[in-house]
Design goal:
By secondary structure, this protein is mainly alpha-helical. It has two domains: 84 residues; 87 residues, Arc Repressor Mutant, subunit A (Orthogonal Bundle). The chain has nine helices and no strands. Helix 1 runs antiparallel to helix 2, helix 5 packs antiparallel against helix 6 and helix 8 crosses helix 9. The longest helix has 26 residues. The radius of gyration is 23 Å and the shape is elongated. The N and C termini lie far apart (55 Å).
Length: 183
């Protein structure tokens, strides 16, 4: 509970109450996902997040029920685990992987046209916002489902679908502005 050193006295009692009441459940949840030692680190990270939120909104703890903190530690633990499991390949490297798997039946001219199209699409994707680009990369390059993307990014499935739709619409618009036909 080192994080208690940096907060005001009135906030300490609220944090201590949450800690004493929910620490065991939070630790159990995190330990089931990450193991005991790393579970303790995850709980500590979540309490630091709680303190940060409390500094921004003094009523933060008043509005939350205990299960909220358990869900916070669960999501944080899953995010840590997912970051370890998958290492995202930057878009440039992903495109080169796609290029290397071109259809051997294509003649050299068609292969070159295909490569140019992929390069142009990669350049257009880089113009999108980070959030939109990230969802498109997870979906179409990494092959994750919308449910998996929602879990990884800690957003709703609706938000994932919206970002995908928005990204496709933005890409169509960028293609049209560049004098290309709709895809």
């Amino acid at each position: 509970m080192i994080f208690l050193l940096v907060i005001a006295d009135e906030e300490k009692s609220a944090i201590c109450e949450v800690y004493n009441k929910y620490h065991k459940r939070m630790l159990y949840t995190a330990s089931q996902i990450l193991g005991k030692e790393r579970g303790e680190e995850a709980v500590h990270d979540v309490f630091i997040k709680i303190v940060d939120r409390l500094e921004k909104n003094p009523d933060f703890l008043r509005d939350k029920v205990g299960q909220f903190f358990v869900v916070m530690v669960k999501n944080h633990s899953l995010n840590l685990l997912n970051r370890e499991k998958m290492e995202l390949v930057p878009l440039d490297e992903s495109i080169s992987v796609i290029d290397s798997i071109t259809d051997p039946e294509l003649n050299p001219e068609d292969a070159l046209l295909k490569k140019e199209s992929v390069d142009k699409l990669a350049a257009l994707i880089k113009q999108l916002s980070v959030n939109t680009r990230q969802v498109l990369e997870y979906r179409y390059i990494e092959g994750y489902s919308n449910i998996e993307i929602a879990s990884i990014l800690s957003i709703s499935q609706t938000a994932v679908s919206s970002r995908i739709d928005r990204g496709k619409a933005q890409l169509r618009k960028l293609l049209e502005e560049g004098g290309e036909q709709k895809c």
